[in-house]
Amino acid sequence: MDCLFDTGADRNLFPAAWGRSLGLKIEKGKLVKTMGIGGKEIKAYTHPVVLFIQGQKITTEADFTDENNTPLLGREGFMNKFEDIVINEKKKFVRLSFA
Questions:
Q1: Does domain 4-97 have CATH number 3.30.70.360?
Q2: CB-based contacts of 6: which residues, under 8 Å, 6+ apart?
Q3: Confidence at residue 69, expressed as pLDDT on a 0 to 100 scale
């Protein structure tokens, strides 16, 4: 699944529909409130997730919400899992290096 790499996002934020399609009971997760673009408060529920990036398994958490349909990979829970991250805006690529 495609996600946006968001250096401005504190945490991973996924559409609740994704979680429901995997059988998660979204509202059974830990309730968190976060700020979205423009300072809008977003209500979400935290669940453990496993991501596979470049063939590597990453065990982390994601917040699931019905209030945002754009999947975001944030600093805590995604970016902090890597040894090094290079963002080249001119060439339009991101390089992730595992420890």
A1: no
A2: 72, 73, 74
A3: 93
